[in-house]
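We modelled the chain as a single entity of 155 amino acids. Its sequence is:
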Amino acid sequence: MKFAIQRSSDSCRGRFLVGVSILLLLAGLWPAKSESAVTPPVIPASPVADEDAGPSRAKSLSCLPKDVRADEAVSYGTKGKSILTVEKKLAEMKARCQRGKLLDAKGREIRFFRVSCWGNPPDDYQEIQKRENEELGKLKKRYTVIVFGCNPMIQ
């Protein structure tokens, strides 16, 4: 009888350890909120060949950078709901792909910019914001820039 009880407790302990291990692995893959300050905020459009066709929506979406999704929110409403997506913003701008670059209706290249978003800002947040604003100003002189807003439900 002792052997059966010990074996079932070993089985439960083994399952528990496997479950905890899986959770730890998944937690390591989940991005931290503060990583946006570490990653570069400028996302240039990646080159794609033979996309010189007209302003069709599928063609303009094929020039999106790999880390920008068409369904990603550009701006949010009052309760954190996505109001404007990348796809809608590009359609509004009449964006098109030409020679592997994403262009607006005036022919200016479109770039994407992610500002740092924090729930609780780091000590040097003003320096980070200053650098981001300087970089954004430089980009706006040369490109049409789509700036990703922060989700108000996180802040």
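As a brief sanity check on the tokenised model: The first strand starts at residue 42 and ends at 43. The CA atoms of residues 113 and 136 lie 7 Å apart.
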